[in-house]
Amino acid sequence: KAEGVSRYTYINENSLKSPLGSNGLLFLPYLQGERAPHWDAHAKGAFVGLTMKHTADDMKRAVFEGVAMNMGLIYNILKENISDKMPKKIIVTGGGANSPVVQQTLADLFEAQILLTDVSDIVGSLGAAVAAGYGVGIYKDMQQARKIMKITKTIDPIPENTARFREILPVFSEAYTALKGIFPKLTF
Questions:
Q1: Residue 90 phi/psi, 5° resolution?
Q2: How far apart are CA 24 and CA 165, in angstroms?
Q3: Residue 29 and residue 34: Cα distance in Å, rounded?
Q4: What is the pLDDT of residues 42-79, one digit of tens each?
Q5: What span, in angstroms and rounded, lies between the C-alpha atoms of 188 and 175?
Q6: Looking at beta carbons, which pairs linking 41-49 to residues 24 or more positions away fall under 8 Å?
Q7: Which helix (DSSP H) or strand (DSSP E) does residue 115 occupy?
């Protein structure tokens, strides 16, 4: 692994030229069934709306957006139930945190600032260490993790993108519903 290059970066996003919405292409990211928000072990991954006009970049972007939009569905469920407590800043870590497309898409979908940290690739280990430290009394609370990490980048939502995702997200959700009865039949 080269210094500063995540092991999770598989696609050269500099060549990703598809616009927001992937030119009308959706990707349902249910490659191992789905836990939330659908709780459906039979759910399958699917490109919806694929035509001859779509490019490889459209397909790549649709994959990024599909993963982010599924998170957007979950976020909206939370928002409906605890709307007055939703954060305006969200720390994002892990593989998706390394993708500029995912970063911006999450900011736009959540209508919140996305914050990146210097511990994205080790956040699981950091969380386990802080939890252990709290468990044995070394730390008085779980806030120690915030003291250890440093915010390295902030991504702001783009209002035009947010408006566009408000149009796309219900269609994304409807695509799952339309295919729900098909998924269990795909076992040949």
A1: -130, 125
A2: 12
A3: 8
A4: 999 999 999 999 999 999 999 999 999 999 999 999 98
A5: 22
A6: 42/183, 42/184, 43/176, 43/180, 43/183, 44/179, 44/183, 44/186, 46/175, 46/179, 48/175, 48/179, 49/24, 49/25
A7: strand 113-117
Q: Count CB-CB contacts under 10 A for residue 67.
A: 19
Q: Write down the residue that tokens 């729900």 correspond to.
A: 180
Q: Of 117-121, 161-165, 179-183, which range is least confident?
A: 117-121
pLDDT for res 182 = 97
DSSP summary character for residue 41: T
Tell whether pTM > 0.90. no
pLDDT confidence of residue 14: 53
Amino acid at 65: E
- Asked if 107 and 89 count as a contact pair (C-beta separation under 8 A), the reply is no
The helix (run of H) or strand (run of E) holding residue 154 is strand 151-155
How far apart CA 23 and CA 17 sit, in angstroms, is 11
The tokens for 184 are 């269990």
Alpha carbon distance 49, 119 (integer Å): 37
